[in-house]
Write a structure and sequence with these properties.
Elements (H helix, E strand, L loop, with lengths): L5 E4 L4 H6 L1 H11 L3 E4 L7 H11 L2 E6 L2 H6 L1 H11 L3 E4 L13 H17 L3 E5 L14 H7 L7 E5 H6 L4 H7 L6 E4 L1 E4 L3 E4 L8 H10 L4 E4 L9 H14 L3
Parallel strand pairs: 1-2, 1-10, 2-3, 3-4, 4-5, 5-6, 6-7, 7-10
Antiparallel strand pairs: 8-9
Helix pairs in contact: 3-5, 5-6, 9-10
């Protein structure tokens, strides 16, 4: 059976990574993850991060880089992650003023090509990672996220579809992944449940149809699956991280 490599978004275990990055990355490798998506540098230089991950055998496929960090110095920011070896960089979240209808939305649209151009010079692809607020409707009756991607070619920016927030917004993840076939190099695999309130869960312990999402990812040309669990109400972050990886193994991944 054909599968894809599995990475972990380090935000899932951010406290552990901050306390002892090398030890935590070794634990991630031992769980069976192939790579990581960074969310910060945890007090290390890019060269140190590169060497730690290389020595452990984890591929630094990508990183979440805030729009604000990009705009402090686009070239220097991209260079940091190019040094580490990231193939992708994702804008992970927009504060209110940069969202659709926000006072600085047009500024965001103007600067995305500048960020993308700096990435391209280093062989990096720029991605946008969604939450649920991008599934509000525009005046044209389209999802905000769709209109954002309509502004640019896939050579400028591609998707990093977070399947948790897609489903939470009331949209079927597999259909939405299919919509961006050829433009979805990384897919975020995240599970959740809603009992009395929303709660993140390890993969296979929530409401997501994980096998269907994985099958669709194979069809649309996805290169990597990234596991993420933002918070942990049950068990420790590392325990949940292991549970997610073990669940994927039961599916043959």
């Amino acid at each position: 059976m054909r599968t894809l490599p599995i990475a972990l978004q380090v935000y899932s275990i951010r406290k552990e990574a901050e306390e002892n990055f090398t030890k935590t990355m070794q634990e991630v490798k031992d769980m069976g993850y192939d790579g990581v998506e960074l969310a910060g540098l945890y007090g290390y230089t890019p060269e140190e991060i590169r060497d730690i991950l290389n020595n452990i055998g984890l591929i630094p496929i990508s990183a979440h880089v805030s729009y604000a960090e990009f705009m402090e110095d686009i070239e220097a920011t991209v260079n940091r992650y190019a040094t580490i070896g990231c193939k992708f960089l994702a804008i992970p979240y927009l504060t209110v003023e940069y969202r659709y209808r926000g006072e600085k939305y047009q500024e965001l649209l103007k600067n995305i090509p500048l960020i993308a151009n700096a990435c391209q010079k280093k062989g990096i692809t720029l991605l946008y990672h969604n939450h649920d607020f991008e599934f509000e409707k525009t005046e044209r009756g389209n999802y905000v996220l769709d209109e954002l991607f309509e502004q640019f070619s896939d050579e400028i920016i591609q998707t990093e579809i977070d399947t948790c927030w897609v489903k939470y917004a009331g949209v079927e993840p597999t259909g939405y992944i299919r919509k961006y076939s050829g433009r979805s190099p990384i897919i975020h695999l995240k599970d959740y449940a809603i009992d009395e309130k929303f709660d993140y869960r390890p993969l296979g312990h929530g409401i997501q149809d994980i096998p269907a999402i994985l099958e669709e990812a194979l069809k649309v040309g996805t290169e990597w699956i990234v596991v993420e669990q933002d918070n942990h109400s049950q068990r420790s972050p590392l325990e949940n991280t292991l549970m997610s990886r073990e669940y994927l193994k039961t599916l043959g991944w």
